[in-house]
Amino acid sequence: MIASTLTMTLHENFDTRNAYETAINRVIQSAVKNVCIFDFNLADSGYNSPQRIQLLRNFLRLGSTNRLTIILHETDYLTKYCPRMMNLLSQFSHAIRIEQTGNQPRQRQDSFVVADSRHCVRRFHYDHFRGQMAWNDDAICISLVQQFDELDKNSDSVISATTLGL
Description:
By secondary structure, the chain is α+β, with helices and mostly antiparallel strands. The chain has helices spanning 2-7, 17-30, 50-61, 76-81, 83-91, 138-153, and strands at residues 10-14, 34-39, 67-72, 96-101, 111-115, 119-123, 131-135, 155-159. An 8-stranded mixed β-sheet has the order 1-7-6-5-2-3-4-8, with helices on both faces.
């Protein structure tokens, strides 16, 4: 019975900042190989909190092939107000890639986190905390990964671990 509950598809709706951040933490904690994050600027998502940084650090330490890819519409908040995330980038520069969307995909107003194409959190609009966490839902997660890949094609690498970008 326990094994079946671990593989059941589960959807949980949320509408508060705390529930949103908790859902992101759960998804990141479940990651084994890759985490894809798409957000407007990371300002409302807890990415400078010690707990979130520790979860990301633990994930990146799990294996040398683990990857974290972040695509943002705006990067100023990250570079100015997220020193913990920037420190993590310098420690794991081989495993973290941060991109900024080009002009065309900026019409997207949602944000999401996907772990291993299995678990995800999606906030329907970056101005509101209403969204859904999907657990063991390949269909939703694969769709988000495909959208992420499309965003990635139209994005530019703008943040690196060194000042010169080397």
